[in-house]
Specification:
It is built from 4 helices and 10 strands; from the N terminus they run βαβββββαααββββ. It is 24% helix and 30% strand. The longest helix is centred in the first third of the chain and has 20 residues, at 37-56. It has helices spanning 37-56, 117-120, 123-132, 140-159, and strands spanning 11-15, 65-66, 72-73, 78-85, 88-95, 101-108, 168-176, 182-190, 205-213, 216-223. A hairpin with a 5-residue loop joins β2 (65-66) and β3. It has a 5-stranded antiparallel β-sheet. By secondary structure, the protein is of the alpha+beta class.
Length: 224
Amino acid sequence: MIEKILPAGVASAELLAYPEELKPHPAEEHLIAKSVEKRRRDFIGARHCARLALAELGEPPVPIGKGERGAPIWPRGIVGSLTHTEGYRAAALAHKLRFRSVGIDAEPHGPLPEGVLDSVSLPPEREWLNTASPVTALHLDRLLFCAKEATYKTWWPLTSRWLGFEDAHITFTVDESSDGAGTGTFRSELLVPGQTNDGGTPLASFDGRWMIGDGLILTAIVLG
């Protein structure tokens, strides 16, 4: 599914079912030695997907460490992103010479828990939801949250700075199909200074794509 919203040059892999025989890379076991089973499966499954994507890029299946705020530590010359939710794990990776950053996120296609929306959205975003949600079968509040997560995952590797939910204003295009699935694009306008730690152009906005199907919401940003 995730490959449908990624451009050429970005490798991806996903797991919709967890293989019982799947084991962690020996060099990663210490990172999850004390984790509960669900956390272990998410960690192992997502990194398994990452190594499949690395192979697609012609790279060796190296261990993937964990850095500040839990961000994955990619091999030199690689950018990428991991995501997991109930029944789904995925990775998207690319060569750094071609893309600056990648951010993906997956969420269940259901409404946000009561009281969450106000803490993750801006007033203009809630105004859009109030207008759009009654005329679509899609859970756009959860889509907004998913896009905010992809925005942060794109931002962090380039800045090493926190980005709050209130620090990006997201707008969407929605192309809803008759079968309850949906696709579209979104733009994240960054509301804080976007100086980066890679010496590149300061960040002002990200453009992304999204899709909904098979009970999942997927968002992806690939920054060239």
